[in-house]
Amino acid sequence: MGTWDVGPFDNDTAADWCGGLDDAEPKERAEKVRAALAETAETVDYLDSDVADEAIAAAALVAAQCPGGAPVDSAYGPDEPLPDLTALRGLALQALDRVLTEPSEPLELWEETDEGPWHTEINRLREVLMPRP
Fold first, then answer.
1. How many CA atoms, within 13 angstroms, populate the side-chain half-sphere of residue 112?
2. For residues 99 and 96, what is the distance between their CA atoms, to the nearest angstrom?
3. Residue 11 bridge partners (DSSP)
4. Among candidates 89, 82, 36, which has minimal Cα distance to 66?
5. pLDDT tens digits for 9-39?
6. Which residue intervals of 6-88 are DSSP H helices?
7. What residues contact residue 52 under an 8 Å CB cut-off, 6+ apart?
8. What sign for the dihedral angle of Cα 13, 72, 20, 131?
């Protein structure tokens, strides 16, 4: 796996997943996002980084549509329009919480940089996805 930065689209797996999202029929895109989030959120055993990277990218797409969310401006993010994904906010938060829970390969890979830029990015997404009163 190639990773060039800490952003949600800054690795080969996420970039490839976004390419697949662009190739999907418009009516299938929300389901692809939901499936990526659910696979990670429902993982009880060791969480593989490829699965997690797709969920992180999916969570970033959901967060981008929420108040306070950063727009997706990465060249590696999807190019095609997405439907309203805000109904997936809770699932996206669950997926990110799972990424940050042992046993998790991405957590292990970024462990050396505890509270470093990767953790900051994940926590920024989590904050945007948190329910608002």
1. 1
2. 5
3. 3
4. 89
5. 999 999 999 999 999 999 999 999 999 999 9
6. 12-23, 29-41, 49-64
7. 40, 98, 99, 104, 105, 106
8. positive
